[in-house]
């Protein structure tokens, strides 16, 4: 691994990249600021010029992760094309793809214990990602009679919880991940059951 630090001219980002590596290897609570400094090839005191402590560093990793997550989800949603249902399913697949491709970001976002309100930038980025899910849910549920329609935020939260559960149990190589079905199959069938319950797709 190449050393990153002052000689790259951006110590703050070098520390973020070091933290990403460490989170992927050890989990978001399994490393110290000193280890991040060593990985970035700077002194143990240098990180404190940019971050108050490990939680502050993880919050920056999570902020960058949520910004990337929102971009990935928004790209998958593609303005609701070719249909609200197809776009919604694409967003679900994008969720799983993001967790696989960006494990360090994902863990910082969802498993670090750092509140989304740790910083204003983190709160903004998390809200942007949530808005993509909520917009997709709102468009899909628009034809449900208003008196039976779940609030879009609740609809989105249900799918978010299902997606996160599948990532945790089946998409990360953990012992609980032994299943004859792929995470994508589990999510697709789970969403299908949920949408049938709302009357949004016909029963088989």
Can you tell me the CATH class of the largest domain? Mainly Alpha
Order of helices and strands: HHHHHHHH
Spans of at least 5 consecutive residues whose pLDDT stays below 50 are 1-7
Give the second-level CATH assignment, the architecture of the largest domain. Answer: Orthogonal Bundle
**How many domain units?**
2
Mean pLDDT equals: 90
CATH superfamily of the largest domain: Tetracycline Repressor, domain 2
User: What is the count of β-strands?
Assistant: 0
For the largest beta-sheet, the strand count, sense and barrel status come to:
none
Any idea of the CATH topology of the largest domain? Answer: Tetracycline Repressor, domain 2
Rg from Cα = 19 Å
The proportion of strand residues reads under 5%
Give the helix proportion (percent range): 55-70%
Class computed from helices, strands and strand pairing: mainly alpha
- For the termini, the CA-CA separation is 51 Å
Determine the number of helices (DSSP H or I, runs of at least 4 residues): 8
Could you characterize the architecture of this molecule?
By secondary structure, this protein is an all-alpha fold. The chain is built from eight helices and no strands. Residues 1-7 have low confidence and may be disordered.
